[in-house]
Structures are given as C-alpha cells and as structure tokens.
Amino acid sequence: MELKDEVRSSFKRSHNLARKYYDCGDLPKARVEYLKCARFAEHLSELTPSKRKEFHERAEKFREIAEGLKVGDIKVYTDGIVPEEEMESSKRTAEDSEGREDRTKDLILAEKPSLKFKDIAGLDSVKERIKEAIVYPFRYPDEYRYFGVKGGGGILLYGPPGCGKTMLAAAAAGECDAVFINLKISDIKDKYVGESEKKIKDVFNLARGYERAIIFFDEIDALAGERSGSQEGHERSLVNELLSQMDGLEAKGTEKRYLVLAATNRPWDVDIALRRAGRFDTTVFIQHPDLPARKKIFEIGLTNKPCRVDVAELAAMTDGYASAEIVDICEKAAKIPLRERIKEGKPRREIVLVDFERVIAERKTVLSGWYPKAVRELTGTEEAGMFQELVEAGAGYISGG
Ligand SMILES: Nc1ncnc2c1ncn2[C@@H]1O[C@H](COP(=O)(O)OP(=O)(O)OP(=O)(O)O)[C@@H](O)[C@H]1O
Ligand SMILES: [Mg+2]
C-alpha cells in the first residue's frame, strides 16, 4: 500500500472510532481520536498537493471539535498523538533515526488537566489514598522532608472498565497542578529491539522537563515480561528499563517532583516485577459506582439536558452498571425524544422515565461478564490475596446479583 493510502485508511479508522466514542459519551477517547484525525488530515494535506487546502481546513475543523471535547478545561501542552500506523509508515520512508525523538514526543499526550477529584463521583477512600501518596507530597514537600517521610512510589489502579481509572489519574495531576503524561503501553511497544526502551527513556526525559509531572501508563498489563514466551528477552528488558527509570526518578532531588501511575483492567496479567515493593507498591481498586456515586453520575450526565426525572430513581435502576455506561445511558435516553421530534415531528420537549427504562432494558452491563471472568482468573493464584477487593466486589455478580 502506498503511504498516502495507509494514512487515509488510518484517518478513516480514527474518524469512525471518534464518532463511536462520541456517540457513547466517552468524550476523552473521542477527543484523542479527533486529535489523531487532525494529524492525519495534516499529513494528507502534505501528501496531496492538489487538495492541500481542503485537508488543512479539515484538520482545523477536527482540532476545533477536539477542543470542544476537553474534560473540564484541559490546557494542551504537547498536542496530538501519532498512532502506531503512522509511526510504522514513517519508519519505512525514513529509516534513519533522525527526528525520532520528536516523533516519540508527538506520541505523548502531555497536558495540565483542570479535572479535580470533586468531578469524579464516589471513590472517596481511593481519593484519600491517592492524596496521601501523591497529592500531599506534592503540596507539602517541606513537611514531608521535615518528618523524613517519602511520598510517592508508584500506584497501580486496577478495576473494571469504564469506572474512572483514567479519570482519577488525570484528576490526581489536576489536584497538584502537575503535567499529566498519558500513554498506553501499546503506544510504546515497538517491534524493533531497543526502540521501545528508547521511547520509555523519552517519556521520562519529557517528564523531567517539567517542574511536576505524573506519568500515567495505561494498560500496563500489556507489558508482560514474566509471561511472554519467545519474546521474553525483549519484553523483559522493557520491564527493566521502566523499573530503572522509576528508580532514577526516586533518586532525584526533592524540588522537582515526578510520580508514576499505572492502570489495568487485567490485574492478573501485570508483571510481578512491577508490583514489588518500591515500584507499584500501592495497588488501588477502582470499583463500579455505588448508589450515591450513580446519582452523581446521572447528575453530571444530565447537565444541560431537559429532564426532571429523579436521579435517585435512575440510580436505583442501574445497580451494577459501570460509570461510563451510565453516562452513555443519559446520551441514549436523550436521543429518543430528539429523534421523535426531528423524524416524526412529535412535540415532546423532555426526557422522561420511560426513555431511561427503554435504554436500560436494552442494555446489559459489560461488568456482568467482566467480574466473573476476573474472579476466575484470580481464583487459586498467588495474586488472589493482593486483589481481594476485586474478588469481593465480584461476588455480587456471580451469585446472580
Ligand atoms: N467515577 C466517575 N465519575 C464520573 N464519571 C465517570 C466516573 N468513572 C467513569 N466516568 C465516565 O466514564 C468515562 C470513562 O472513564 P475512564 O476512562 O476513567 O474509565 P477507565 O476505568 O479508565 O476504563 P478502561 O479500563 O476502559 O480504561 C469517563 O470519561 C467519564 O465520563
Ligand atoms: Mg482507562
């Protein structure tokens, strides 16, 4: 395939994903995909002189859309993500490694979130634990130094999908006014030996360029040093590079501060070496929302929507659902009267209880599959004790609750 075709197909893929995420209310993911679209469109404008202006304008449009999807009021420092497809194609056209450092930086989304813990429903004890490990050492470095207490270390957030792990990590940065460097392990992984390690170094170097930074490794389970058969040597050295970079951060002075967070919804797959003391020594379970949390998520999800249904009632109807699913339920419920007005000319101007009932009846929570699988994976393993909270939370789903 020609480079242009490759970029075009990546562009289409991101565009479809962006719309999909947008439709189900996952605005942060939609935003990332729209940023990718903007970048692809720019790339296409370079590659297609006859349509340069048109693609450039589309890129602008996508950036505008992404801007409108910010969580809270995120200021973007290093904008845009270059997806793997584009990395691959650029590798083929420019095999020399010049400029690769810049490309890695492009790959990293470094921003200063204005998202705060108060924007996240529930999870109060989790917030407090993160505060003690991360926020207070950032805010009161002198106190910590005075008492000779070391803050920080790495924190591993684990739990079901769509319940706020990524959001919490961003809010932790927002709470201490730190730059948030957010990347997926799959973004770093490179089939060329040595390249992934270099990308990890780049990430930590990027962090060191800021006064305060939180590095967030999403889908940390993809870093599988212990389990990966033939690739073992390669993956092992990637794990080692991450560990040594983390150790390096800790040894640094006290004025500048960097912390590392990681998240997974496959905790049983996380490399043991990463969980040993001193690295990701704090593991925090991010549970699905309880009743008060669901009420708050409905309040958030129904902001700017014409709806007078009691959120307590809605919360009671959605026991066991993931937070992201509740946000999605609000979107889908709103679309029912909207569609009726537009397509059938009906005069209804509000979302009513029946709309929610319809959406909820059609939608099973993914957690009813996720929890039993997670408990099965952990049962009888050494990790079961470590992830006890998950096993306990899963009991409700297994006994048909
Ligand atoms: N506790 C919460 N309070 C309010 N909204 C939430 C909460 N948790 C999740 N959401 C909503 O769900 C979306 C997805 O959440 P998030 O990306 O943080 O989930 P996650 O746990 O990282 O999921 P995954 O494991 O799939 O990465 C958020 O953008 C937000 O709209
Ligand atoms: Mg996430």
Automatic annotation (TrEMBL):
Keyword match Coiled coil: yes
Domain spans labelled AAA+ ATPase: 151-290
Cited InterPro entries: AAA+_ATPase (IPR003593), AAA_ATPase_domain (IPR050168), AAA_lid_3 (IPR041569), ATPase_AAA_core (IPR003959), P-loop_NTPase (IPR027417)
Single GO term (MF): ATP hydrolysis activity
Gene3D superfamilies for this protein: 1.10.8.60, P-loop containing nucleotide triphosphate hydrolases
Keywords per UniProt: ATP-binding, Coiled coil, Nucleotide-binding
Keyword hit for Electron transport: no
PANTHER family: AAA-FAMILY ATPASE (PTHR23077), NUCLEAR VALOSIN-CONTAINING PROTEIN-LIKE (PTHR23077:SF171)
Stated name of the protein: AAA family ATPase
